[in-house]
Design a protein that fits this description.
- There is one protein chain.
- The radius of gyration is 19 Å and the shape is globular.
- The chain has two domains: 189 residues, Isopropylmalate Dehydrogenase (3-Layer(aba) Sandwich); 129 residues, Isopropylmalate Dehydrogenase (3-Layer(aba) Sandwich).
- It is an alpha/beta fold.
- 40% of the residues lie in helices and 19% in strands.
- It has a ten-stranded mixed beta sheet, with helices on both faces. The chain has a two-stranded antiparallel sheet with strand order 6-7.
- Bound molecules: 1,4-dihydronicotinamide adenine dinucleotide (NAI) and magnesium ion.
């Protein structure tokens, strides 16, 4: 197994090496290749995702991508490296579980999975404005909708899950969201063991806030999935523990959901749980090592249950001492 390690900016440089240290204990034969991306890389090399980084990522089985800082204003030549990387590697699905973890202020009994289309919808970036009227293209294709639905149902079946809820707003956008819904239902027909229902996105937001425990798998187009998965993350204990996996036919990117956290960067106190759990997703869904994934998840859970936590969760652990505690609980 060959992992391309892109730590990125800010706390990415702190959490990723520590999480990879834990992964090495589980996979002694793991090979790693480090590569650069992000704002610092842009300032040094004029590109946020240098060609060498893309080549390194293509040459590995999978990538762990920490976080990057993005300017809040337009900078000539700068493009978000993670958006570019997901596209270049054909990672069409974004997979985000939310689990109730101990000691994180999480709601009890939550165990849901959001599978989000990762390549189209309003995120195609085709906007126009004449100063008076601004227009954005929302593009939905049958093929991309089917592809992400295949991923959602495959993961649901593999994980013994019961139900997939298709999220849309087809009452207002019958052609675009209707196509997404219909394509997902076509795919669902091949999985008779999994119940399927559908929900308007606004209703889904309300129900998620009221009773996140009631959901199993949510399948959504890009924009709704982006928003609902951040909402769901609040019930699992917040950004420090929110994990994700970008999945494609050839490549995968494990990616903690959080950003570069400039407010705490450089102090060694960032929470590595999001990165650790993202690596567990990689072990389970890409490297077909579910037992190792469960071992890692259980060790993280036990560490938190023992009251060990970084300051964002009210504890005093450092990034490194938290990972030491996880390592001590792997066996
Ligand atoms: P952020 O996720 O970096 O931080 C939000 C808040 O959560 C901060 O108070 C931070 O200290 C805390 N936090 C986040 N992750 C944490 C962790 N692992 N442990 C402890 N505390 C943690 O979001 P923010 O502040 O909006 O953005 C900062 C920079 O990150 C910006 O340049 C933004 O563009 C970038 N960003 C990058 C993302 C990515 O690489 N995928 C995603 C989100 C933001
Ligand atoms: Mg987001």
């Amino acid at each position: 197994m060959k992992l391309c390690v892109i730590a990125g900016d800010g706390i990415g440089q702190e959490v990723v090496p520590q999480a990879v240290r834990v992964l090495r204990q589980l996979l002694p034969a793991l090979q790693t290749v480090s590569a650069e991306a992000g704002w610092t890389t842009f300032l040094q090399q004029g590109q946020a995702l240098p060609a060498a980084t893309l080549a390194a990522a293509r040459g590995c089985d999978a990538v762990i991508f920490g976080a990057v800082s993005s300017p809040a204003y337009a900078v000539a030549g700068y493009r978000s490296p993670i958006v570019q990387l997901r596209r270049e590697l054909g990672c069409h699905a974004n997979v985000r579980p939310t689990l109730s973890l101990p000691g994180c202020g999480a709601r009890d009994g939550v165990n849901l999975l959001i599978v989000r289309e990762n390549t189209e919808d309003l995120y195609v970036g085709e906007e126009q404005s004449d100063g008076e009227t601004a227009t954005a293209i929302k593009r939905i294709t049958r093929s991309a909708s089917r592809r992400v639905a295949e991923t959602a149902f495959r993961l649901a079946a593999a994980g013994g899950r019961q139900r997939v809820t298709i999220v849309h707003k087809a009452n207002i956008m019958p052609l675009t969201d209707g196509l997404f819904r219909d394509a997902a239902r076509e795919v669902a027909a091949a999985y008779p063991q999994i119940a399927v229902d559908e929900m308007l996105v606004d209703t889904a937001a309300l129900k998620l806030a009221q009773a996140p425990q009631a959901f199993d798998v949510l399948l959504a187009p890009n924009l709704y999935g982006d928003i609902l998965s951040d909402l769901a993350a609040a019930f699992g204990g917040g950004l420090g523990v929110a994990a994700s996996l970008n999945l494609g036919a050839q490549h995968a990117i494990a990616e903690p959901v959080h950003g570069s956290a400039p407010d705490i960067a450089g102090r060694g106190i960032a929470n590595p749980v999001a990165s650790l759990l993202s690596l567990a997703l990689l072990l389970r869904h890409v490297w077909a090592r579910p037992t190792l994934a469960a071992t890692l998840e259980a060790a993280v859970r036990r560490t938190l249950a023992d009251g060990i936590a970084t300051p964002d969760l009210g504890g005093q652990a450092t990034t490194g001492s938290f990972c030491d505690a996880v390592l001590a609980r792997l066996g």
